[in-house]
From TrEMBL:
Protein name: Acyltransferase 3 domain-containing protein
Superkingdom assignment: Bacteria
Listed InterPro entries: Acyl_transf_3_dom
Region: Disordered, residue numbers: 19-38
Keywords for this protein: Cell membrane, Membrane, Transmembrane, Transmembrane helix
Domain Acyltransferase: 71-383
Matches recorded under Pfam families: Acyl_transf_3
Chief site of localization: membrane
Organism for this UniProt entry: Microbacterium testaceum
GO BP, sorted A to Z: enterobacterial common antigen biosynthetic process
Length: 414
């Protein structure tokens, strides 16, 4: 999540939690709505032989021809947020005793791609901050991150005071502990650590702007390799993950132009090569699990899967039947903020039929897939109405009510 150069500086999104980059990207595809409509209208050609009007479509039934240069990001975000939902679903199911049929193995796979992908995309939109004053940084980035993190942490706390603590997204009894809530600015206790990470990462990136780029890249890489290998541990899941994934945020900010150029010049051969490379790595790591403890191995795997995902997304963005991935990616913030609540409520119901579910073919994996689809859809529907309450998503102070209303109306129209 980062701040997109296409968006207003106060609107939230998920590879851009403080900006709805996906929605901004959709505005950037064509100069205006009429141009966008024209790009999708069938062309009409008059046959010179006098056979009358012949209608031909510029885009085939399967492939789009109106894809923007950066639309692949929406596909990546869509895939990543679905994997995050599935990961959290698997954790809740595990708390119900459903660890059969590959739930644990699925969780390992689901944990590999999303966070590196989101942080790398977030970093791509941070290059401008190095020329800002701290006042600009606070107004255009930090206060939105901090506000969003605090508001939704409070909502989560209130939720678990009422709803039985099925699993509490990793926090255990801390989910409804007032003292734990007071410490969230230094000790993240929930899945919202991602927003907190954006605050910390952005501040560190800005503060280190006077240093040569390679210094921060090297420091972040060393910290990541040590953390992923289990050689260091902060005893806090949020901080552990922040240390492991900071390197991707830094790489995105440092090599923004090169990354964009590499992805946008992707060829079929590169896609096949990147997918094969990751598949080979995954197979090796599966059969030789001890390699995961070697510093740097996890980072190599993450780089390979991100490369495969990014390059493949450039082609998937053109496939019309897969447009729902982009749709979800545009709304990734909505899903991210709400999905834990939806999962917790569904898990309460599932807890009464866990024994019966365990008799189904495929058991865990079947339930993971079904719940992931339901949770994702419900999260999008719920936040369609929640976005009418603009202060849940956008820092409300110091701005006119008219501006907030305009933004809320714009969100609803999308």
């Amino acid at each position: 999540m980062s701040w997109s150069r296409h968006s207003t500086p106060t609107t939230p999104s998920i590879a851009c939690v403080a900006e709805r980059t996906g929605r901004a990207h959709s505005r950037a595809r064509t100069p205006n709505a009429s141009a966008r409509g024209a790009a999708r209208m069938p062309s009409v050609r008059i046959d010179s032989g006098g056979n009358g009007m012949e209608h031909t479509r510029r885009a085939s039934l399967w492939l789009r021809d109106d894809v923007g240069r950066r639309d692949w990001m929406d596909v990546v975000k869509g895939v990543a947020i679905i994997m995050i939902v599935a990961y959290h679903v698997s954790l809740f199911l595990n708390s119900l005793g459903m660890d059969a049929a590959g739930v644990g193995r699925a969780r390992i796979v689901l944990d590999l791609f999303p966070m590196p992908a989101f942080f790398l995309i977030s970093g791509l939109f941070q290059t401008r901050i190095q020329s800002w004053s701290f006042a600009d940084l606070w107004r255009r980035r930090l206060r939105q991150y901090l506000y969003l993190y605090a508001v939704w942490s409070l909502l989560r706390f209130a939720f678990y005071l009422v709803v039985p603590n099925v699993r509490a997204d990793g926090a255990g009894t801390a989910a409804s502990d007032p003292l734990a809530l007071l410490g969230i600015l230094v000790w993240p206790i929930s899945s919202y650590w991602f927003i907190y990470a954006l605050f910390v990462f952005t501040l560190v990136l800005w503060a280190s702007r006077v240093l040569p780029a390679w210094v921060l890249v090297a420091a972040a890489l060393i910290a990541s390799t040590l953390m992923s290998a289990g050689l260091i541990d902060t005893e806090n899941v949020g901080w552990n993950r922040m240390i492991e994934y900071f390197v991707f945020f830094v790489l995105g900010a440092t090599f923004q132009r090169r990354i964009h150029a590499a992805v946008e010049r992707t060829t079929p051969l590169v896609i096949v090569g990147s997918v094969v490379a990751f598949a080979g790595f995954a197979a090796f790591a599966t059969f030789v699990p001890r390699v995961a403890g070697i510093p740097g191995v996890a980072f190599i795997g993450q780089v390979l899967v991100v490369a495969a995902g990014f390059t493949l997304a450039t082609r998937l963005a053109r496939v019309r039947p897969l447009g729902w991935l982009s749709y979800i990616g545009v709304r990734s913030l909505n899903v991210y903020l709400v999905h834990i609540f939806v999962i917790a409520l569904l898990a309460i119901g599932l807890s009464h039929i866990a024994g019966w579910l365990d008799t189904l073919p495929g058991r865990g994996l079947l339930v993971i897939g079904a719940m992931t689809a339901i949770v994702t859809a419900l999260s999008i529907v719920i936040t369609r109405y929640l976005t009418r309450v603009s202060w849940l998503f956008v820092y409300p102070f110091g701005r006119s009510a008219g501006a907030r209303t305009t933004r809320a109306n714009a969100r609803e129209s999308r």
